[in-house]
Amino acid sequence: MNPKESELKITIAKLIEIAYSQNKGMTTKIVRTKGNFTLKVDQDGNATLTGKSGILIFSGTPALETIGAKIKRVSVTFSKGNNSSVKYKATFSLEIISLSIGGSFDIEELITSCSGLLCKAARAMKQRNAQYEKQLQNIMGN
Amino acid sequence: MKILLIAFTLIITGCSTIKSSDSLYTVYSKYTAAATNDNNYIKYFNETITSKVSENNASQLLFHQYMVKEKEHFTKINDNIGCLTVNGVNKSGGPIAFYLKYEFINNQWLISDIDVSFLENVELYRNAALCPDESRVE
């Protein structure tokens, strides 16, 4: 079963949330600074969030585990304007094909959405949590 | 002399037919028909792709299922490399594009690289052929 568009968008949101849960200060600095920032995940699940204000390295594996296909690489470029809206373009390289998506979302809404116990529990679980994913999908757009 | 000239013309015409831009889309059409009917569709891909196929990832070769309606297509060829862009509509009704790269091997065009792009809006449809490398975020 090939990944759906919504699954890819949710994965991007999850990666940012993992970064935020690992290092709230640095993630906030990177995503709030005006300009571009990037997110890359290699085939071992090593994720790097890079912006003008710094670099954050973390494990992106938990976010990729819920996608059925094996992901070889993820590359995302984000561009941030003056307000909290962020535009992004991403490519997920699978073993044979690649899937690219683009969109925009509200970064403040995303990083403040998941502070409750439900989201902490959902992050800790490797399996999918329908309510948590629905919340992320609403933020990232269908 | 006349026979030689006719033979030469036939060879040239034959080559230009095989390597014309239309043939990229013809290969794509044959692939989608074969894949839809579960026939031998793997023959439309080159070794770069077929060497990676396993039981776990073979469904990726059925990427055509992401598009339910075709809108238009564009091709470009540079020597033995060609690229085809197919614009269309996905299952949710949103815009989608396939960017395919081809290589001309043993007198036939074979698909060697694929990017499936979910487009944010219809304004992002390209009205020219784009290769997968040009579409991806690197």
Overall description:
- With 142 residues, chain A is α+β, with helices and mostly antiparallel strands.
- Chain A has helices at 5-22, 24-32, 61-64, 107-113, 117-124, 130-140, and strands at residues 35-41, 46-51, 54-59, 73-80, 85-93, 98-106.
- Chain A has a 6-stranded antiparallel sheet.
- Chain A starts with a helix and ends with a helix.
- In chain B, β3 and β4 form a beta hairpin.
- Chain B has one domain: Nuclear Transport Factor 2, Chain: A (Roll).
- In chain B, 30% of the residues lie in helices and 32% in strands.
- Classes of the chains: A alpha+beta (142), B alpha+beta (138).
- The A-B interface holds A 1-2, 5, 8, 69-70, 75-77, 89-91, 93-104, 142 and B 49, 52-54, 56-57, 59-63, 65-66, 90, 92, 94, 114-120, 124, 132, 135-138.
- β6 of chain A pairs parallel with β4 of chain B, so a sheet runs across the interface.
Key traits:
heterodimer, A: 142 residues, alpha+beta, six-stranded antiparallel beta sheet, globular, B: 138 residues, Nuclear Transport Factor 2, Chain: A, four-stranded antiparallel beta sheet, 4 strands
The stretches of 5 or more residues of chain A where confidence is low (pLDDT under 50) are none
Mean residue pLDDT of chain A:
85
Helix content of chain A: 40-55%
Largest sheet of chain B: 4 strands, antiparallel
| SS-based class of chain B | alpha+beta
Work out the count of structural domains of chain B.
Answer: 1
Which overall shape of chain B is indicated by the principal axes computed on the Cα atoms? globular
Bin the strand percentage of chain B: 25-35%
**Distance, first to last CA of chain A:** 19 Å
| CA-CA gap between termini of chain B | 55 Å
Name the strands of the widest sheet of chain B in spatial order: 1-2-3-4
Give Rg of chain B in angstroms.
17 Å
Taking pLDDT < 50 over at least 5 consecutive residues as the criterion, the unreliable ranges of chain B are: 8-17
CATH classification, class level of chain B: Alpha Beta
